[in-house]
Design a protein that fits this description.
This protein has 315 residues and is α+β, with helices and mostly antiparallel strands. Helices cover 17% and strands 24% of the residues. The protein is built from six helices and twelve strands. Strands 1, 2, 3, 4, 5, 6, 7, 8, 9, 10, 11 and 12 form a twelve-stranded mixed sheet that branches.
Length: 315
């Protein structure tokens, strides 16, 4: 099956103003488009088109990132106006009071909801570095079979929309946990498969990592719970709408995933687990499949990568 003509998708032209999702004077949240750096990075030292630079031009203020999203990830990004506001916002990230929800397009059809308790070694560390606890819950939401798709060795290529709820915040955690499950993200140049990445880039007219930070929740210093969202049906998420419109999705997209409210964590997955309790003394994971018993499996080998950014990762 050949991909249809590319549909208009993605975000506005370079240096376009960012969509503001929240602004209370101390904290500000934006929708980060896929492909945009949060701040200057050694990965692309000459590039000054970043979230920080766009907000400086847009608002006349230099905003400080509270956490990090990978360049390829789209969705909710929280920033603050002062160092004190950054510290107040980062405290819930550091003590596990933040709730993060992501959506991703993956290869294959995951069997069902699963909690992955699989320690990860820092990607920029040597093989002697200890693995750090890492915990993510996943649930498949919809699946698709593309006849005569990306791999000519098979009559069809299978993909799924999955929800992810990371509780810890290791670098590239969701991407590495999905690789551990043998369901890598489409568009992941490090852990995915090139032919699938290229096929979808041609099909939808945009090469990107298909990972979206749909929602972020955390306690606010003024009291109450702050819920931030970048819903898939918003006009700035046209690339995800093009994906949803692809013919052949075998399960209807749930309204909770498609609208403003993200799916709930499936019953049976321990959302309250302390990420510091992940794994075991032998460094092996304790991934839990709701369709079967706990199963230990060896940790993935580390992958070399660029140094981390200036803020703790969001997932």
């Amino acid at each position: 099956m050949k991909p249809p003509a590319a549909a208009p998708c993605g975000d506005a032209a370079e240096a376009a103003p960012l969509t503001l999702l929240h602004d209370d004077g101390d904290w500000l949240a934006v929708h980060k488009p896929a492909g945009l750096l949060v701040h200057r990075s050694p990965l692309d030292a000459a590039n000054t088109d970043t979230v920080q630079h766009r907000l400086k031009a847009q608002l006349g203020a230099w905003l400080l990132p509270v956490h990090r999203l990978d360049r390829g990830t789209s969705g909710v990004l929280l920033l603050a106006r002062t160092p004190a506001a950054v510290r107040a916002a980062q405290a819930p990230f550091l003590d596990g009071r933040v709730r993060k929800h992501y959506l991703g397009l993956v290869r294959g059809w995951p069997a069902g909801p699963m909690a992955v308790d699989h320690p990860l070694r820092p990607e920029d560390a040597g093989p002697e570095a200890p693995a750090q606890p890492a915990w993510t819950a996943f649930a498949p939401l919809a699946r698709l079979a593309v006849e005569g798709g990306a791999d000519p060795r098979h009559p069809q290529s299978r993909y799924a929309l999955v929800a992810a709820w990371p509780r810890s915040g290791r670098r590239h955690q969701i991407r590495r946990h999905l690789k551990h499950l043998a369901h890598p993200l489409v568009g992941d140049a490090t852990h995915g498969k090139g032919e699938h990445n290229r096929w979808w880039a041609a099909a939808l007219g945009r090469p990107r990592l298909w990972l979206h930070a749909q929602a972020l929740g955390l306690p606010h210093p003024d009291g109450g719970w702050l819920h931030l969202a970048s819903p898939l049906d918003a006009p700035w998420n046209a690339d995800w709408q093009a994906l949803a419109a692809w013919p052949g999705w075998q399960t209807p997209w749930p309204e909770t995933a498609w609208g403003a409210t993200p799916p709930e964590l499936p019953a049976g997955l321990d959302e309250g687990q302390d990420p510091s309790d992940s794994g075991g003394p032998d460094g092996r994971d304790r991934s839990i499949d709701l369709d079967g018993p706990a199963r230990p499996s060896p940790p993935s080998p580390p992958a070399p990568d660029a140094p981390a950014g200036h803020a703790p990762p969001a997932g």
